[in-house]
What does this fold into?
Amino acid sequence: MKSGFNKQEIYEILTRIPRGNVTTYGQIAERLGNKCYARAVGKALHCNPDGDKYPCYKVVNSRGKLSSNYAFGGIEEQKRRLEADGIRVENNKVDLKIFGMKILND
It folds into this structure.
C-alpha cells in the first residue's frame, strides 16, 4: 500500500510538537493528506532512526493510549519520557483534552 508520503515527512512533523503536548497517529496522517494512513504512520515511527531527534514518544493513539510497542524501550520508557516532558500519564493513557494538540497545515 502506497501512503503518498515518506518517513522523513513524518519525522519532521515530530520535531514541531511542542514540549508538554502529544498528537495522534491519525492526526499526523491527516496532516499528510489521508487520515486513513494512521497505521502507516505507526509503522514509520517504529522505524524511527533517532528517538531523541524525532520524539515519537509524543504520539499516542486516538484515545490517548501509549504504545505497547514503543520502539525505544517499550511502554514504560514512553511513559517516562512523556512525564519528563510534563505530560501526566494515568493508566498508560494521556488526556488528549489537556495535552493533545491538533497538527495544523503550514
Observations:
- The chain has a mean pLDDT of 91.
- The domain at 7-99 is CATH 1.10.10.10 (Arc Repressor Mutant, subunit A).
- The first strand starts at residue 23 and ends at 24.
